[in-house]
Amino acid sequence: MALLVGLSVGIAMAQEAGSAEETATASAKIYDMDPNLVAPELLPVELTIPEADVCKSERDDEITLSLIVDETGKPRDVSAIHPVGTPLERLALRIVEDDRFKPGTLQGEAVEVRRLVRVSLQGCLATKKDSNGSSIEVFRLTAQPEQNFVTKPRKEYIAPEPSELPAPGIRGVYRVGNGVSAPVLLNEVEAKLTDEARGEGIEGACLVTVVVDVRGKPQNPRIFRCLGYGLDENAIQAVKKYHFEPAMKEGVAVPVMITVEVRFRL
Q1: Does the structure show a pLDDT above 70 at 52?
Q2: Domain extents in the chain
Q3: Rounded to whole angstroms, how far apart are CA atoms 90 and 6?
Q4: What was the pLDDT predicted at 20?
């Protein structure tokens, strides 16, 4: 596998801009969930792990990335779910960008598939000399990175009748179905039970209708079914902090309206 190993990412470069322009979206349909879909398979890869200089400190981390595996088994649109721009994150991006896969298939035909992959890295900070003879800190792998597809079930969404839907306040909002995939919940924040509800022994579920935008961010959350006792407000605050993989239509991210169930238990 052609990957420069140093696999050294200079700590001095940590402040460099790590973002790159997204590649053009292919016209082929992108699949993520289908009962007949055979998922892509990562082909075996072994990286050469060089001997590190004296380690100053050991480091390990798990980085979750989103990617599309195309019909030829090549990854594209590789990006971090929660980008932070650290050297370990940039290293994980480089590793996955150089991966090769057995492509996913649907009814025997190779198709493009969107997946999440968790990259586990183990390494250490070491010291090396730059071209000027100055000492700099770099991160080096000390073990083969582990890569695993993340199997995260979709959140169950409740589809209210069209007449019951509140006005979203955002133009061009879709609903799930008819070629529009459901967004995938990546980060869920627990809604807090209020003292008033706890004192009255109140538990149950609020339904919150929300628009998930093209960045996977919740917009305009509204209570669809309420509980009272301050729980509705807490449900809204929790949903505002959710993060989704956005809905897709013909391979393009689109805003959709969904209804999320927020549960409160004593």
Answers
A1: no
A2: 9-149, 162-264
A3: 14
A4: 28
